[in-house]
Design brief:
- InterPro entries: Polyketide_cyclase/dehydratase (IPR019587), START-like_dom_sf (IPR023393).
- The chain is an alpha+beta fold and 179 residues long.
- It has 2 domains: 1-30; 34-177, START domain (Alpha-D-Glucose-1,6-Bisphosphate, Chain A, domain 4, 2-Layer Sandwich).
- 39% of the residues lie in helices and 36% in strands.
- The longest helix has 27 residues, at 2-28.
Length: 179
Amino acid sequence: MKRNTKKAVKGSILLLLILAITVFSLEYFSNYQVTTTIHADAPVITRKSIVINAPVEKVWKIFSDVDDWDTWQKEIVSPALNGQFKEGAAFDWKSNGLTIHSTLNNVQPNREVSWSGPAFGAFAIHRWHFSMQNGQTLVLVEESMEGWLVQLLAGKFQSGLDTSIDHWLAYLKVAAEEA
């Protein structure tokens, strides 16, 4: 019995070591293409929109103040912009348990912003459009996610992303429409 236990322990350790090396390799050798548009071939894609009863300048001001995201977006923790809200700037934040390091790829004040960033097993590109329509702001958002973990759990990531973007838009609407 003792001999079989030792074999089982050694086998388990070997299996864990192989798994750790595989995960490390997948993370280390991942090469994601940074673009200002989402990746249409990504396994997870979401497109959503909302109309906000506030001028685009007000919506943009709230949205572009990354350091204050956690005051109105309840799923965000510890957002921190490193520099000014402009192309090339990076910011760190936590969302739904993931720590994310993002880089602004395109910033056109009051019109459009896109950023991208990796998280464990994933890479996402966010793209937000802002436009005035009849005194209101139309916000369109699209996001793509890819990576080994996203590929493995595409259904879970898709439903999580859909819900997350719905929350982002609803929270932004409330924040912008407050007095």
